Amino acid sequence: MTSMISKGSAVPSGAVAFDGVLLLGATGRLGGMLRRHWPEAQSLRSQSRQPQPEFHQFDLPAIGQRPSDAAIAAARGARAIICLSGITPARAGASGANLSENVDIALGALNLAVAAAVPRIFAASSAAVYGAGAGPLTEDVRCAPLSDYGKEKLAMEQAMLKTRAGVAVTLLRIGNVAGADAILGGWQRGMQIDQFPDGRTPSRSYIGPVTLARVLHQLCSADNLPPVLNIAAPGAVQMGALLDAAGLEWQPKPAPAAAIPEVQLDTSALERHVDFAPEAQTPAGLVREWQQDMKKL
Fold first, then answer.
1. Phi-psi group of 96: left, alpha or beta (phi > 0 → left; psi -120 to 50 → alpha; rest → beta)
2. Which residue of 37, 155, 176, 265 pairs with 213 in a disulfide if CB–CB is 3.0 to 4.6 A?
3. Residue 100: left (phi > 0), alpha (psi -120 to 50), or beta?
């Protein structure tokens, strides 16, 4: 996709610069988690498309358009922008939005970074770009997404890396986040989980909401980041073990032939920049972080 990225523009009169991070898409589930657990709350500015107390209200610019004065004022002085804005399958189904809009949204965020002279931007991608690849999945493997969502996120990645416009771009392939997932976050009575002949349930890479906020906070000040990073705690956890740790009932059902036993993200690159507490990698630790987050809702 061809895009036009606007050049830097002046800060509106009276704008106050800050040395922090601008969070785009702050009203979503992941955005809420980051706001609740950001290590330095005063260093985080949050964006919303609708008027809300303590939020900066603005829309991201369309392709080829200059960002609004409100957007530039909010971003000016930031050390980084984190863009969580995007179209999820759930939102697409509910509102009729097109998943292909993820490309334009991310490029709009990049446009803002250029206009406000923000040196670094992080854009949320997804582990869905990997498809059914065997793990542990490193960032440099050939991606073969199966879902439309994964395909559009991969298109977003490619557009961001092609455009860049002098901004340091890091794409975040985020694994399952405890509480924003279909297992803990989507649990309901009578839930059934695939079970394979060896008794195991599907295993996935996970990260807790508290650890996610800490990791992204550290990345915003890290040096020499690669263009793509897997975001998850090391290893993988079984879905059944996660619900067991939470004391939530579930029922096994025979896994269909198409079921994927394990999706594990390789976190070697991430671990060169951040350390993980041992408990952050366990079902019990993930559940504790989820419960800690629930108490702050």
1. left
2. 37
3. alpha
Model confidence pLDDT, tens digit, residues 177-223: 999 999 999 999 999 999 999 999 999 999 999 999 999 999 999 99
pLDDT tens by residue, 122-175: 999 999 999 988 779 999 999 999 999 999 999 999 999 999 989 999 999 999
Report pTM: 0.93
Interval 30-89: pLDDT, tens: 999 999 999 999 999 999 999 999 999 999 998 889 999 999 999 999 999 999 999 999
**Stretch (H or E) spanning 48:** strand 44-48
Nearest CA to 222 among 165, 163, 294, 271?
271
Query: Nearest to residue 108, comparing CAs of 178, 147, 60?
Result: 60
| DSSP symbol at 62 | P
**Which residue do the tokens 């599907």 mark?**
202
Dist. CA 18–CA 257, nearest whole Å: 53
> For 7-147, where are the alpha helices, taking DSSP H only?
29-37, 69-75, 89-95, 101-115
Structure tokens at 159: 């557009």
The stretches of the chain forming alpha helices (DSSP H) are 29-37, 69-75, 89-95, 101-115, 148-163, 209-219, 239-246, 268-271, 283-295
Number of H helices, E strands in the chain: 9, 14
Output the CA–CA distances (angstroms, integers) from residue 48 to 27, 165, 195, 216, 266, in the order listed: 6, 25, 41, 20, 33
Task: Quickly state the pLDDT bin for 1 (edges 50, 70, 90).
Answer: very low
**What is the C-alpha separation between 125 and 106, in angstroms, rounded?**
10
